[in-house]
Design goal:
The complex is a heterodimer of chains A (114) and B (113). With 114 residues, chain A is mostly beta strands. Chain A is built from no helices and 11 strands. In chain A, the strands form 2 sheets. In chain A, strands 2, 4, 5, 6, 9, 10 and 11 form a 7-stranded mixed beta sheet that branches. A 4-stranded antiparallel beta sheet of chain A has the order 1-3-8-7, with no helix packed on it. In chain B, strands 2, 4, 5, 9, 10 and 11 form a 6-stranded mixed beta sheet that branches. Chain B has a 5-stranded antiparallel beta sheet with strand order 1-3-8-7-6, with no helix packed on it. Chain B has 113 residues and is mainly β.
């Protein structure tokens, strides 16, 4: 158990819909990262938040957005869903003092768009 | 986005065999990391390397940070069925900057008991 909690574990929805994925980082971690994993693309970095503020952006589509709340949990919002958005979405957190790329991943949310 | 060249893409071996996989890049990294992803779970950090030439072991796993800082390898000795999973390498472009983690596409390992 990494200490990072993600909900829901599985989500099935239709094209055009909007979903929200939730992540609670490890206790004491200030950074939250979102990754997308699809079969042919490996782990794609989407976005990072640090203590409530956006720190870095990766390959995140404009239809996607995220935020980190004062209690440090984070939400990833995916809208106008397309079939190609079906993937595993991982959240990870890191310790405040970690400058080394050591991430702790949740178990992921599997999104299926029909 | 930028990715590392990780090879092989997949391996199917017999229990007890040794395994070797590697990652290369055209960029210089300050840190190399190896993660393992079990089926249905998120990646878990196996080994982190911080200095060029560094050789680090974690049980049956050994990883090295290449001298050129552009490559790393991971060896698994005497493989067992629970070694099954996907192994990812990741390189960090500059110290103190988690957002600059670059990932390989993974090596899928299957072990025949």
């Amino acid at each position: 158990d990494s200490g990072v909690t993600q909900t829901p574990k599985h989500l099935i929805t239709a094209t055009g819909q909007r979903v929200t994925l939730r992540c609670s980082p490890r206790s004491g971690d200030l950074s939250v990262y979102w990754y997308q994993q699809s079969l042919d693309q490996g782990l794609q970095f989407l976005i990072q938040y640090y203590n409530g503020e956006e720190r870095a952006k990766g390959n995140i589509l404009e239809r996607f957005s995220a935020q980190q709340f004062p209690d440090l949990h984070s939400e990833l919002n995916l809208s106008s869903l397309e079939l190609g958005d079906s993937a595993l979405y991982f959240c990870a957190s890191s310790a405040p003092s970690a400058n080394t790329g050591e991430l702790f991943f949740g178990e992921g949310s599997r999104l299926t768009v029909l | 986005g930028q990715q590392l060249n990780q090879s092989p893409q997949s391996m199917f071996i017999q229990e007890g065999e040794d395994v070797s996989m590697n990652c290369t890049s055209s960029s210089i990294f300050n840190t190399w990391l190896w993660y393992k992803q079990d089926p249905g779970e998120g990646p878990v950090l196996l080994i982190a390397l911080y200095k060029a030439g560094e050789l680090t072991s974690n049980g049956r796993l050994t990883a090295q940070f290449g001298i050129t800082r552009k490559d790393s390898f991971l060896n698994i000795s005497a493989s067992i069925p629970s070694d099954v999973g996907i192994y990812f390498c990741a390189g960090q472009l500059s110290a103190g900057n988690n957002r600059k983690l670059i990932w390989g596409l993974g090596t899928s390992l299957a072990v025949n008991p």
